[in-house]
Amino acid sequence: MIYKAINKNISLASKLLLDGEIIVYPTDTLYGLGVDATNQEAIKKINKLKNRIQPLSIIVDSFNMINNFCLLNTQNKIDLKKYLPGPYTLLLNKKDNLPDLLTCGSKKIGIRIPKSNFAINLVQNISKPIVTTSVNIHSEYSLNSIDEISNKFSNLNIFSGKVNEKSKGSTIIDFTLNPYKILREGDGI
Description:
Elements: E1 2-4, H1 10-18, E2 23-26, E3 31-34, H2 40-50, E4 57-59, H3 63-69, E5 70-71, H4 74-83, E6 88-94, H5 100-103, E7 108-112, H6 117-126, E8 130-134, H7 146-152, E9 157-160, E10 171-174, E11 181-184
Parallel strand pairs: 1-9, 2-9, 4-7, 6-10
Antiparallel strand pairs: 2-3, 3-8, 4-8, 5-6, 6-7, 10-11
């Protein structure tokens, strides 16, 4: 089903996530596939759908939520505010309160706070981070059109909204290194 990514549909999207379902939702870059990032069975579903097992990133709603899941030094805390919210994924050292399957055993976790009201409101509504990964099967190109997404993933609940149709994805920066290192150049400058 396709729904508009508007506030009145936050409850539906939240219920689907809390029930362990995969949804498609808009971010400030691309559409994302999402599940409750604390639900190991849901993470398994998203890995099966994408036909791969690799570390996944999460969307959080605030710097407080980052503190709940990441180990931050003083400089990280200052620098986070330069990049978030925005089209960045920042790799940070994670705490042990997220499923290992989410990061495939890595001590790092990718964190996003997108400039996307729907995604942020969704996280706030369920009081948990959500997985964010591009809408595609492993090794295929990312889908960023509702028509393509609904044709390829007709069994998913899709929440359509405004995305950057020419997006290259988020810029990924490893904040665990000194100096920080850009791992992928995307929409963030």
